[in-house]
Amino acid sequence: MIDFQNIYPEIFLIMSTLSLLMIGVFFKNSFALVKKITIFALIICIPLVYVNFGNQILVFNNSYSINVFSNLLKIIILISSAFSLIFTGQYLKRINIEKFEYMILILSSTIGMFVMVSANDLIGLYLGIELQSLSLYVLSSLDRNSLNSSESGVKYFVLGALSSGLFLYGCSLIYGFTGSTNYLMISENLSVENLGIIFGLVFVIVGLAFKISAVPFHMWTPDVYQGSPTSVTAFFALAPKVAGMGAFIQILFVAFKGAYVEWKSIIVFISIASMILGSVAAIGQTNIKRLMAYSSIGHMGYALAGVAAGSIAGISSTVSYISIYVVMNIAAFTCILFLSREKKYFEDIRELGGMSKNHPIVSACLCLTLFSLAGIPPLAGFFAKFYVFKAVIESEMYMLAIIGLLSSVISAFYYLRVIKIIYFDKNKEKFDEMSGFGMKFSLTTSSLLILFYFINPSLLINITDLASKIFK
Amino acid sequence: MSEIPILTLTTFLPLIGIFFLMFIKGEESFVNKTSGYVALLTSGIVFLSSIFILANFNYSNPDFQFVEQQDWIFNFVNYKVGVDGISLSFILLTTFITPICILATINSVKIRLREFLIALLLMETMMIGVFCSLDLFIFYLFFEAGLIPMFLIIGIWGGERRVYSAFKFFLYTLFGSVFMLISIIYIYFDAGTLDVEKLLNIQINKDYQKYLWLGFFASFAVKTPMWPVHTWLPDAHVEAPTSGSVILAAILLKMAGYGFIRFSLGLFPDASIYFGPLVFTLSIIAIIYTSLVALVQKDMKKLIAYSSVAHMGFVTIGIFVFNQEGIEGSIFQMISHGIISSALFLCVGVIYDRMHTRQISEYGGVVNVMPKYAIMFMVFTLGSLGLPGTSGFVGEILVLIGSFKYNYWIAFFAASGVILSACYSLWLYRRVVFGKILNNKVQNLVDLTKTEYLILTPLLIMTIVLGFYPALVLDLISPSVEKISSNMVNYLKFANLGN
């Protein structure tokens, strides 16, 4: 019983998912109600996680760890899941997918993510990944009348299943050579001379890299991002990345800390490849969702650079990077969800032409967000990059730092291109006025956070430092 | 005195102006008018407060004064500002030029005036911040943050090829700064602090100094701009609206010169000596090559832009000869160039607003219809080519003396730039102002308006006052310069002994 007391945030989420399923089934037209309750449940869950924030406990026979790190990531996941519902506004209604299952799926994938960041065992991690991914597959094909959406769902599912297979294969190798699936046991029995373990490690990294869409396992990202309903794309860009990165850090720094030299070169390669591909491939994009897909690939590269540094400062910088990335994406996707004329949504970036004239505030926020994504000081995105590269340079990986910062210059180009379209190009017609409190709220909060982050940058980094100390 | 955080106030006062600007509501004409007044008032107050700093400044103290320090990022960066004579002279230049820019903007910009003024005031904060920050990280923040408003100024209010120019400006500068950021982080891990005052007393390992110097150089060379990374400047200058060009020429370019003096010489003396010949070569190429390029320009703004590159070549030579005359000369040259080149851009702006063309061939015989304008333009042209009695002369002669002391070949090549600058400036002046009126439009030109007088007269006065009484600036900067140059001369002796 003592074990269950420590996971009541998870239990709470499961209970609310199940009861919302009941409400959805038994009440007619319950979409708005379910949505409200879901947001409420996600927000209520934050203090539940926070109550035991500082605890460090292993439960269920050491297979589930609750610590500052996983708690912090859980809070970020909850915030991003909540926002991905809050800023949806009228979107789901307008494209006719006003189904209460949407909320249930988001909640269940959130539970999956909780398990991912807390797992201390390969089996647990796999369960978390699958719970998360299966919900995401369904979410991406939720708009079943749209060919793109169905296609993206199938594509995501096939490739996701393949990566899960690779991941499981890696797990079985690791189990075979270390005799356990538990992280602690693995790290105890780890010997770097044993090629079998390293082989398994590579497969595990591949499986996880797929989940956070790092190059060269990113192929699904642009198509799925483009095909899925925009609000689902926004969700993809937020919470699963946080969870994937959390799982990445847990497995590398708890189970395979002894094999740092071995996995360092893999992570460095993945990181560099993601940064470069993310910035170069985005240049030619005209679809804003595809552009955001490549942008998120690039950002995963920067976040992984912190992991590659292999130090406490590196983990801390990765977590702070990912939190700021979440905030920036909330702002960006709120603006993308805003792009509708007479209830028809647009994805082509040329449609943004001269938006600054008709919608000065929204365009100012979007402009701010894009500058921040490009990493221009004094906005939040700059500090995120700065901490990562500070950690990288501290670990004396100068080439990684130089390549990373140069690719951030390249990526500045396509962000600037969007800004150019907003501010320098000719006027197009007006967009619909921003509807609903949710969109306004999420845009205001996220833009203010981006803009005024510089006033006290140490606040976030102190928390992430605290969270990362458990990997000592 | 230390109770009032006067430097911080001066730096962030424009932001208060921006705050008010954002809340002006009403009809467009009302908004434009009011925001013009608000911006002008703000920049005026900033100017007064910088004068206040000058009044309380201790001229004989070469160290940093008005130092303010505040914890900012835990255990890592302190918000630290302070001024010595060098930084104060640049701050005064900034606060002096900004109101003139704002006036010029109100006079010529018609669309989205309020946003333009917000961008200008934002620039002012960033520029003052650059010159007074005493922490490398803060310096970098201000240095980079200026990109955003400038990018928007060029891109929104610029000429035909504004998008290309804005992108070029932004990406070139960002590209250079990336290396500076890496150097700054490295310095933090090597020295354990980013406090400039402390760093000036710490010897950074000689082996690394070269790399770090190159990192800073990459950023400053782009910003200066030095040959061959100067190509963004003509584009940016030509396409930017008049006041954007003024800000670029008068202050943004000076950030790099200031950076060279404060950081390259101060933090990496050995590397500066080592790379001196590189800087001289690039600067001499810049002086001669860009002067020749300026000769064949058909666009007035482009000509002035290339002349800026040549003048900045003098500045970099003056800095890297390390003696007092050289450094004083280059600072003086920067300030004088800040005044004269802005005046020239404003002069071009005056006729551009009337004719809407910058092609030299479209003009000719302007003196017949705009005699007063012709006089103003003449004084600034002569100042630009360094006629004795104008501020341009003092800077050039000091740099030449300094470089002659160091190596007379450098002085020889640099001096050839003086002749070339006379060629292109006078030729420009002749083609635009003298001769017969060939274009009917020129016939209808009206002479300077009151506002234009108001814009150009302060610059005219400063050009001549500084020409006759250079001590106004030199007294301010010489104690700090002496400190830097005597330090450098010591290192130079040491380096020669080593060989």
Write up this protein.
The complex is a heterodimer of chains A (472) and B (499). Chain A is mainly α. Chain A has one domain (2-471). In chain A, 75% of the residues lie in helices and 2% in strands. Chain A contains 21 helices and four strands. Chain A has helices spanning 2-5, 8-26, 31-51, 68-86, 91-94, 101-118, 122-140, 147-178, 183-189, 195-211, 220-227, 230-255, 260-281, 288-309, 312-338, 355-358, 360-374, 380-394, 398-423, 436-452, 458-468; strands at residues 57-59, 64-66, 340-341, 344-345. In chain A, the strands form two sheets. A two-stranded antiparallel ribbon of chain A has the order 1-2. In chain A, α14 runs parallel beside α18. Chain A is globular, with a radius of gyration of 21 Å. Chain A starts with a helix and ends with a helix. Chain B is mainly alpha-helical and 499 residues long. Chain B has 21 helices and two strands. Chain B has a domain at 295-499. In chain B, α1 packs antiparallel against α2 (28-55), α11 (242-267) packs antiparallel against α14 and α16 runs antiparallel to α18. A two-stranded antiparallel sheet of chain B has the order 1-2. Chain A binds chain B through residues 371, 376-378, 382, 386, 389-390, 393-394, 398, 401-402, 405-406, 408-409, 412-413, 416, 419-420, 423-424, 454, 457-458, 461-462, and chain B through 72-74, 76, 140-141, 144-145, 147-148, 151-152, 155-156, 162-163, 166-167, 170-171, 174-175, 178-179, 181-182, 185-186, 188-189.
